[in-house]
Amino acid sequence: ENIFDRSRMAPKTPIKNEPVDLSKQKGCTPERSPITPVKLADRPQPDPWTPTANLKMLVSAASPDMRDREKKKELFRPIENNEQSNTPDSLQYDMVDDNTVDEFEKQRPSRKQKSLGLLCQKFLARYPSYPLSTEKTTISLDEVASILGVERRRIYDIVNVLESLHLVSHVAKNQYCWHGRHNLNQTLKTLQEAGELQYGELMALFQHKEQDWEYKFGEQKKETIPESQDRPLLDFPEPDCTSASASSRKDKSLRIMSQKFVMLFLVSKTKIVTLDIAAKILIEETQDTADHSKFKTKVRRLYDIANVLTSLDLIKKVHVTEERGRKPAFKWIGPVDFPGKTDEPKGHSPMSNPLPGMQRGACAPYQIQATGKQRFTRHASFNVAQPCEGSRRKVSSEPSSPHQKRQACIVNSDEHCSKMINLAAVCRQKIAEDTRTCATETTLNPGKNPGTTSPLSFLPVPGDFDFCVNTLPQAVLPVVQAGVPSISLQNGVSSQTLHSSMPATSKTENGKPTLLPNQPFLCFPSSSLFMLCGDLQENNLRETPPTTEDVGNKSAEAPAAVLPAACQKHSSHKCASPSAPADDEEPAAKRQAMEQGDVPLSLVVPKKSFESPKAESTPGSGCTSAVHLEAFHLDLASPTAPLAADKDCTRPLDSQEQEKCPQNKDLDEPSPGKEHICKENASQPFLPQYIYVQPTAGLSSCNFLFPAKQAPSAISLTASQLPSLSVPCVMVPSAALASFPLVCSATIASPVSPVSDGSFTAAASMNFSMSSLASTTPVFVGTTAMVAPKVPPAPSVDHQQPTHSTLHLSPVLARSCTAVKLDSPVCMGHPVTLLKLQQPSSAPLTPKSIRPACHEAFFKTPGSLGDPLAWKKNEGTQTRNASSVQRRLEISSTSPD
DNA sequence: CGATCCCGCCACATT
DNA sequence: AATGTGGCGGGATCG
């Protein structure tokens, strides 16, 4: 045979392929064949063939080429479509030298035949997926290499990836132990958790970027300490490794890269990750500057990894079509839910050790990350509460203008920042693109759900990016923000473009009636508050300006210089919080989203939030906060842009922005408690701290909400305000005020209930959700009351109002509910508006309390007034309580505390 | 022409 | 120094 081969080969052209044959030939000469393949290849033959060849020879001595060939054939065939594979075989046997060319060609393995993926399949074919626990299969690199007829180097490529998933472990030189897929799910789970921590944030960054940014920045700069923390996210592995394992060398980057890559999938809502995004993320982490060459190299490596993962049936190649064109991407087709897995993203303590088996380097990156993340999340959850870092620091430090800070941060953090930025930018773009684009992929759905897709979960956050970016840059976003939530998101998304214009319009955009379509809201970012101007009209314009300001504020915290610190913190917190929450939530969201569709594109996340479900989901606990946030974001977005994506993205920003606002006083707090407008119900849930005032559409009046939120922590302002529950807020009723009550109308929603998202928007806006914030006090109640009076109009309301008043106290929910009721009947007026109003109303109430409860309860059943009462009670308590969040939750339930 | 990615040089680690 | 590992990127193929 050998001879034949030679003959064939020789005559023709020495093809690379040939080597194998040659080796075989060599094989003939046993001498050389040392077991370990030496580079010797040189040997006699001209062909340098690889040493492995010799080995192969030896190995295969028993079953020489034939096998290989056969194997190859077999393997290939299935794999490849071509017939060629066959031919070669035939050739072998039949062939004559003559066949030569054709045959050769045929024989010569086409590139595909030599692909790493194919090789990996062959490799895997040799071992049982689920080996008996008892038996241990050892893998000899040399042996395998020779058997498979490849260089050892290639085997390393495969083994490294397999090792990253713990399918094999390195036991000794040249020796690997085959574990099979028994622990695959566990490993994936671990990776997912770790990924959420790490990437969650990153992603978040991307998606939420702003938050993250600020978050990061803030922390880092502010505190150096944090740095390490931050790092975790990115670097995680190395550090640990280094210390721990002392991993030397660069080490196993392929292994680590593989894990990270897998994490991205697991964290991605859509389960689709485009190569470029992955590369960017990985590069980023890596640190360095990513130059083009690096990027290229990364991509190459990713292809290597992807080939192996594909062979494992964990991913498949797909294409995501974006505006720009189609981009290569991979979709996760492996297990998604891991039973035991904790769902909660946040909490995990992944650290423990994700990878059971890892021996070597396996330092799990996770750990580190985890840490950092956790923190984040927490923060996120409550701005106030946890603010720890950010706020505190900030406070102390300088709070001057937010902008400055940011910038400064940026500068300082610089790298991170820059990276972040870049990434964010990238993400955005992608997102935007994605959004727009549809996924074409075979697999994917073309669906494009707008929202959905982004490959990474990140996307959703887009807003963040912008935010961040903008901020840094300057911020411009604002406008969008003004647009309000929806807009903001969009902005964030910027790339998407979404709605940039939207701001005001956003509502319209949606088309969703709900919002008031045109109602413009004004949001005042002031700190806590938002002002919504409800005018239906478009006051937007006017509003806009403010918004802008807000925006600016956002970035900065402009408002009060004083507060600045606080603000900053807030901002940071907020950001963080939002993000964090987001992260946490995201997972869920993602999941959901994911579930929903594959959309390739990013963005998916938020949407859900809109829906009540989210709120529900979130509910609870601390998590909730996070969730809220997300929801929040979403909500915001939703209003305007129905598109989830957009919304999502933007949202965050908005909130942030809002926070900034200066206004106030309260504002500061505001920041903490962002108030969002939630158009949607969803928003309800979370909303942060701000209070909105919505005017009804028609109404000119504007309402203001002040955030109560955090009183405690928060800022002084709050305190003042809050002191009692309500406090701070001021409402301006005007007709508008009425609206608030109207807000209740939100109730309207009732019908819809929370739901409606689309529509909600308006409502949403109303929502504010301060609750989340914390605020504590819901406060508003008073407002409500106030309203009532004014509102007389709504007689119907009246009854409620009374309630309200009482209610007011109660947390948001109650309010909302109440309000709703009232409204509905009464208010009236603008139905649409009403919806919006509702929220507002709620908002007024108390942002804080509202939050959690709100979400769910609210929307869903506005009706139950009873609650309100309860609320009142609660409120009282609440007020006391600082922790808004909890309360809120409680509130919702009833009286929590 | 961009997407893939094979191939193997070469550096670093380990023995 | 030999050998094990594996980063890395040129450049060939593929589509």
TrEMBL record:
GO molecular function: DNA-binding transcription factor activity, RNA polymerase II-specific; RNA polymerase II cis-regulatory region sequence-specific DNA binding
Xref: Gene3D superfamilies: Winged helix-like DNA-binding domain superfamily/Winged helix DNA-binding domain
Domain E2F/DP family winged-helix DNA-binding: 111-180, 249-334
Gene Ontology CC terms: RNA polymerase II transcription regulator complex
Pfam families: WHD_E2F_TDP
Ranges where the record places region Disordered: 1-52, 75-94, 224-247, 387-407, 572-601, 643-677, 869-897
Protein name per the record: Transcription factor E2F7
